Amino acid sequence: MRLSVYWFGCVALLCLLMGGEVWCDCTEDNMQIEGGTYTLTKGLNASSLLIYHCPEGYYPYPSKKRVCQLNGKWKEEPSIFRPQTCRMVECPSPFVLMHGIVNPPQEKYYVDNETTYECYSGYTLRGSDRRVCLPNGKWSGSTPICSRDSGSDCADPGIPAGASRTGNLFRLDDKVKYSCNGNLFLVGSHERVCLENGQWTGTEPACYYDYTYDTPLEVSEAFGSAIKGSLTTLDPTDDTQEGRKIRISKTGKLNIYIGVDISESIEEKYLNDARDTVTKLITKISSFPISPNYEIVFFSSDIYEVVNILDFLDGKAQLNLVKTQLENFKVGSRNTAGTDLNLAFATFLERMALIKQRTGEDGFKEHRHVIILFTDGAYNMGGSPDATVEKIKNMVYMDPNYRQKEPLRADYLDIYIFAIGAEVFDDDLKHLVVGLGGQHYFRMKDIKKLQKTFDEIIDEEEVKGLCGLHKDYDTNKERENYPWAAQIVVQNEGRVMRCMGSLVTPMFILTAAHCFTFDDLPKHVTVDIDDGQGRTKRVKNFFLHPKFNVSAKVNEGVKEFYDYDVALIQLKEFVKISTLVRPICIPCTQETSDGLKLVGESTCAQQEQLLLKNMEKLTFLTRRGKWVDEKHVHAKLGDNRDECIRHALDAAGITTQNPEVPVTENFLCTGGRTPFRDHIACTGDSGGAVFKNYEHRTVQIGVVSWGSQNLCKGGGVVESQENSRDFHINVFRVVPFLKSILGNDNQDDFAPLEFLKS
Ligand SMILES: *[C@@H]1O[C@H](CO)[C@@H](O)[C@H](O)[C@H]1NC(C)=O
Ligand SMILES: *[C@@H]1O[C@H](CO)[C@@H](O)[C@H](O)[C@H]1NC(C)=O
Ligand SMILES: *[C@@H]1O[C@H](CO)[C@@H](O)[C@H](O)[C@H]1NC(C)=O
Question: Domains in the chain, start-ordered, CATH in brackets?
Answer without folding.
Answer: 5-88 (2.10.70.10), 90-208 (2.10.70.10), 231-459 (3.40.50.410), 478-742 (2.40.10.120)
